[in-house]
Write a structure and sequence with these properties.
Blueprint: H1 2-36, E1 47-54, E2 60-76, E3 83-91, E4 95-100, E5 104-111, E6 131-136, E7 142-156, E8 162-178, E9 185-200, E10 205-221, E11 226-242, E12 248-256, E13 259-260, E14 266-273, E15 276-283, E16 296-311
Parallel strand pairs: 2-5, 2-6, 2-7, 7-8, 8-9, 9-10, 10-11, 11-16, 12-16, 13-16
Antiparallel strand pairs: 1-3, 3-6, 4-5, 12-15, 14-15
C-alpha cells in the first residue's frame, strides 16, 4: 500500500511540475506584449522624420538600423520603385540617416547616441506613439542589421533579396518573416526578454541561430526548406512547427522542462529522463543510412522551460 501511494505521489508531482513549466513559459511570453507598450498613449515631445534614398545604380546595400524604443515595421518597396529606402518615423531624441558608397551602399538609420533617448520604465506605454515604418528595395541584395532596445518589431522580409540578417533586440515582441531567395543566407536573432515569432518561407535555405534570454520562441518552417542552426533559451518556451514529410534531426538539451514531440519521432542517441533531456531525435529519414540526410537540422538548448514540436500532418 505504501508503494502505491508513493508512485501516485510521484505521478501527481510530475504532472504538477509539467503544468508549472507551461505556466512559466506562458507568463514569460506575455512579457513581450507588456514591454512592447502596444496599448500606449501619446508622446507629445516626439519629433517626426522622413528619409528617402534612391537606388542610383546601387548593386548591393548594407542596412544598419538602430532603434532605441519604438514600434517598428520593416517591409519591402514595390519592385518597380527606383528607391533603396523610404522611412517615416516618430521618435524621442534625434534621428539621422547617412549613406556611403555608390555601387555598394552603406546606410545607417537610427537614433543618435546621447540625444535624450534614455529609457525609463515609467514611460514604456509611450512606445505605441513612436511608430517607425521602413520600406526597403527588393531589387538588390541586402545585408540587414537591426538593433532594437525596447518595443515591438515586425519584419516582413519575405519579398527582399536578403543575404544576411542580424537582429539584436532588448525586450519586447518580434514578428519575423524570412524569405526564400534561391540561395543560402544566414539569420541571427538575439533577444533579451519577450516573445519571438519567426516564419520561414517555403523553399528557403537558411542558417538560423537564435538566442532568447527569457520568453517564448516560436518557429514555423515552410515546405521544402533546408534549415540548419541552433536555438538557445534561458527560461521560457520553445515551439516548433514543421512541414509535412520533412526529414528532421533535432538535438534537444534542457536542464529543467517538458519535452513534447510527435509520436512518430524516434530517439537516435542520448537520454531523456524526467525533466531533463540530452538526446538526438529524428523523423522522415534514416540516420544510419549515409545516403539519406536531414533537411532540417536544429540544436535546441533550453535552461528552464518547455520544448514543443508539431508536424502539420499529425496535428
Amino acid at each position: 500500500m505504501k508503494e502505491k501511494k508513493k508512485k501516485r505521489y510521484e505521478k501527481e508531482f510530475s504532472f504538477s511540475l509539467h503544468s508549472l513549466f507551461d505556466q512559466i513559459g506562458e507568463g514569460l511570453s506575455e512579457l513581450g506584449d507588456v514591454i512592447s507598450g502596444e496599448a500606449g498613449g501619446e508622446a507629445p515631445d516626439a519629433e517626426d522624420y522622413e528619409f528617402v534614398e534612391e537606388l542610383a545604380g546601387a548593386e548591393e546595400a548594407e542596412m544598419r538600423i538602430h532603434i532605441n524604443r519604438a514600434q517598428c515595421t520593416i517591409r519591402h518597396l514595390e519592385a518597380s520603385s527606383d528607391r533603396l529606402l523610404e522611412a517615416k518615423l516618430r521618435a524621442l531624441g534625434r534621428v539621422e540617416c547617412t549613406v556611403q558608397g555608390e555601387a555598394h551602399k552603406l546606410v545607417r538609420l537610427g537614433t543618435v547616441s546621447g540625444s535624450s533617448n534614455h529609457f525609463r520604465w515609467s514611460e514604456w506605454r509611450r512606445n505605441a506613439a513612436l511608430p517607425w515604418d521602413i520600406a526597403l528595395s527588393p531589387r538588390i541584395p541586402l545585408h540587414l542589421k537591426v538593433n532594437s532596445g525596447v518595443g515591438t518589431n515586425t519584419l516582413f522580409l519575405q519579398e527582399l533579396n536578403l543575404r544576411e540578417l542580424q537582429l539584436n533586440g532588448g525586450a519586447g515582441k518580434t514578428t519575423l518573416l524570412l524569405p526564400a531567395t534561391g540561395q543560402a543566407y544566414r539569420a541571427r536573432v538575439r533577444a533579451g526578454a519577450g516573445a519571438q515569432q519567426l516564419s520561414i518561407a517555403d523553399g528557403a535555405q537558411c542558417r538560423l541561430d537564435a538566442e532568447v534570454g527569457a520568453g517564448r520562441f516560436q518557429l514555423s518552417v515552410g515546405e521544402g526548406c533546408e534549415i540548419k542552426g541552433s536555438i538557445r533559451g534561458g527560461a521560457g518556451a520553445c515551439d516548433l512547427e514543421l512541414p509535412p514529410g520533412a526529414a528532421v534531426r533535432l538535438q534537444v538539451t534542457s536542464g529543467i522542462g517538458r519535452l513534447r514531440l510527435p509520436e512518430h519521432f524516434r530517439k537516435w542517441s542520448g537520454h531523456h529522463m524526467g525533466f531533463s533531456s540530452d538526446a538526438i531525435w529524428y523523423s522522415g529519414y534514416e540516420p544510419s543510412d549515409e545516403a539519406q540526410e536531414a533537411t532540417i537540422r536544429l540544436s535546441i538548448h533550453m535552461g528552464a522551460g518547455s520544448v514543443r514540436v508539431r508536424q502539420l500532418e499529425y496535428v
